[in-house]
Specification:
Radius of gyration: 18 Å
Number of strands: 6
Keywords: DNA-binding, Phosphoprotein, Transcription, Transcription regulation
InterPro entries: CheY-like_superfamily, NreC/VraR/RcsB-like_REC, Sig_transdc_resp-reg_C-effctor, Sig_transdc_resp-reg_receiver, Tscrpt_reg_LuxR_C, WalR-like
Pfam family, one: Response_reg
Largest sheet: 6 strands, parallel
Number of helices: 10
Helix content: 40-55%
Protein name: Response regulator transcription factor
Structural class: alpha/beta
C-alpha cells in the first residue's frame, strides 16, 4: 500500500512513517502543507493519503480543502484525515460527496496501532472509518430524542455501524450472531425512520446524517 502523508509535525510524521513501514506500507512522500501534498499525490499516485486537518499557513482547515481537492482531481482518492479534536463539520464535509474511501480519526487513535491500521486498510479498500469519539459525541442527546427508543444493544450496534464497521465485525465485537446484528440494524433503521441500505458507506452516511441533524446535540464549545 503506497501512501502520501501531509503532516507538519516532524516528530509525528517521523513516527507514523516508521510505524507504517513496519506494517509493510510504502510511504512515498511526507509533506508539510496542502500545496506540497497535492503535488505529491499527482507525482506518486498513492493508494491512500493521510492528511492532518490543520496545516500551514493558517493551521485552520487547509488539510481538509487539500483532501477534497485531491479527491476531485484523482478519482475519489481514499483519504484518512487526522485531527487533534472532534470537528464534526469536517467529517460531514468529507462524507458529503457520497463516495467511500473516507476516514476521520483523532490523532490519539494512532497509539492504538491495531485499530489505526485496521481503519487505514478499510479506507484504502473504499470503506469508511469514523473515530469512535466522534460517534460518541453525536450520540449524546437530551431526553425525548428518538434515540431513546433504542435498546442498549441497538445503541451499541448503531455506534459501531456509524464508525464504518460491517455486520461481521459488529457481530464479532458484540459477540453475537450475524442474524442478531441484522435484526438490530433493521430495528434501528425502522425506529429512526431511515431507509434500509446494505451499502456500507451509504449506510454510514445515512446514520451520520440523522445524528447530525436531529435536535438536542450537546456541542462542547470550540470542539464541534
Amino acid at each position: 500500500m503506497r501512501i502520501v502523508m501531509a503532516e507538519d509535525n516532524v516528530l509525528l510524521a517521523g513516527g507514523l512513517e516508521l510505524l507504517l513501514a513496519a506494517k509493510g506500507c510504502e510511504v512515498a512522500a511526507v509533506v508539510p502543507d496542502g500545496e506540497a501534498f497535492l503535488e505529491a499525490v499527482a507525482e506518486h499516485r498513492p493508494d491512500i493519503a493521510i492528511v492532518d486537518v490543520r496545516l500551514p499557513p493558517s493551521f485552520r482547515d487547509e488539510g481538509i480543502h487539500a483532501a477534497l481537492r485531491a479527491r476531485r482531481e484523482h478519482g475519489a482518492l481514499p483519504i484518512l484525515v487526522l485531527s487533534q479534536y472532534v470537528e464534526r463539520e469536517y467529517a460531514g464535509e468529507l462524507l458529503s460527496d457520497g463516495r467511500g474511501g473516507i476516514g476521520y480519526l483523532l490523532k490519539d487513535r494512532i497509539g492504538r496501532v491495531a485499530e489505526f491500521i485496521d481503519a487505514l486498510r478499510r479506507v484504502a479498500a473504499g470503506g469508511t472509518a469514523m473515530d469512535p469519539e466522534v460517534v460518541a459525541q453525536l450520540l449524546a442527546r437530551r431526553a425525548g430524542d428518538p434515540l431513546d427508543s433504542l435498546t442498549p444493544r441497538e445503541r451499541e450496534s448503531l455506534a459501531l455501524m456509524a464508525q464504518g464497521h460491517d455486520n461481521a465485525t459488529i457481530a464479532e465485537r458484540m459477540r453475537i450472531s450475524d442474524n442478531a446484528v441484522h435484526k438490530h440494524i433493521g430495528n434501528i433503521f425502522a425506529k429512526l425512520g431511515l431507509a434500509p441500505d446494505d451499502s456500507g458507506h451509504r449506510r454510514v452516511r445515512a446514520v451520520l446524517a440523522y445524528l447530525d441533524s436531529a435536535p438536542g446535540t450537546l456541542d462542547p464549545p470550540g470542539l464541534l
